[in-house]
Amino acid sequence: MSGSGDTEPSQVKMAAQIPKAFQRLMVSSLTPKFRNAISVETVSMVTPGPKEVVVKNRFVGINASDVNFSAGRYDPTKVPPFQIGFEGLGVVTAAGAESRFKVGQPIAYLHDGAFSEYKVLPSRFAIPIPSLKAEYIPLMVSGLTAAISFDEVGDLKKGETVLITAAAGGTGQFAVQLAKKAGCHVIGTCSTEAKMEFLKSIGCDRPINYKKEDLNEVLKTEYPKGVDVVYESVGAQMFDTCVNRLAVKGRLIVIGFITGYKSDTGYTPIRGGATLPPKVQ
Predict the structure, then answer these.
(1) pLDDT-derived band of residue 6, with 50, 70 and 90 as boundaries?
(2) Bond preceding residue 128 cis, omega within 30 of 0
(3) Smallest Cα–Cα separation from 233: which of 174, 155, 178, 177?
(4) Over the range 56-79, which residues count as b (16 or more CB within 10 Å of their CB) and which as e?
(5) Residue 4 lies in a domain
(6) Mean predicted confidence (pLDDT) in 143-167
(7) How many CB atoms lie within 10 A of CB 111?
(8) Going by fewer Cβ within 10 Å, which terminus of the chain is more open, N or C?
């Protein structure tokens, strides 16, 4: 196995000790049952091309989207085996002559195949970071999802009411903070008292533990004019409630459908084994 370029080994800057082979996770069959979809593959170490780097992964991001990717939902034309994992954080262990990176330099990246001991990466996808801290990982998939959603679709305005479902989750917590920074009143759903306290600590105005309070009744009673913007990632009944409680000219951003990720179709299973997409009542 080799990199995409024709760089001679003498032109490549390499760390003193690099293994001759490494392991990575591969999607070997399409199924939403992640453990069944994955196999471990051992591959030979790569000499990077002139505009490539080899990264020793130290941290990787685990996302709900990994389940959808391994089920073949993002790209129906993608045939196993293929690599899995969207984001990584590590140290450059080998760098092509034109890569602009140094051996030992910490970088972050967004690229398929992060679930691997080492990653061969086109240098244009490498993002220099000050140090190796796991806290940088959520900024990429989770943070960018929230930021792009609000910037491109949400059209947040100061004083508006924003509802964020799964608000204590990976991307939800970013959405809470961004909405507050935009001057909005923020409602956030969660499932435990500990998450309620966490949401308060990051500025959520009205955290709701949906296991103890009825979301529809809370919104109907406390927000009779409706919600201006919804950042929705749960689906099923939660989706229905959000649609029904939208204000006039409200915007609903669907960024996920967690309740259906593990089903064969991607929708939430109902009685009798059938599945249905969300229903608006």
Answers:
(1) very low
(2) no
(3) 174
(4) bbebbbebbbbbbbbbbeeeeeee
(5) no
(6) 96
(7) 18
(8) C
pLDDT one-digit tens code per residue, 47-69: 999 999 999 999 999 988 898 89
Cα 185 to chain centroid, rounded: 25
Same domain (yes/no): 103, 202: no
- Which residue do the tokens 């960018």 mark? 144
- Please tell me whether residues 268 and 145 are part of one structural domain: yes
Query: How many helices (DSSP H) and strands (DSSP E) are in the chain?
Result: 7, 14
38 occurs within a structural domain = yes
For the beta carbon of residue 252, count every other beta carbon within 10 angstroms: 17
Question: Structural domain of residue 111, as residue ranges?
Answer: 9-136
Q: What pTM was computed for the model?
A: 0.82
For residue 248, the SS3 value is: strand
Write the Ramachandran bin of 136: left for phi over 0, alpha for psi from -120 to 50, otherwise beta.
alpha
The number of folded domains in the chain is: 2
Does residue 219 belong to any structural domain of this protein? yes
In a domain, 21, yes or no: yes
Cβ neighbours of residue 235 under 8 Å, at least 6 residues apart? 256, 257, 258, 259, 260, 268, 278
Pairing of strands 87-95, 82-83: unpaired
DSSP state of 232: E
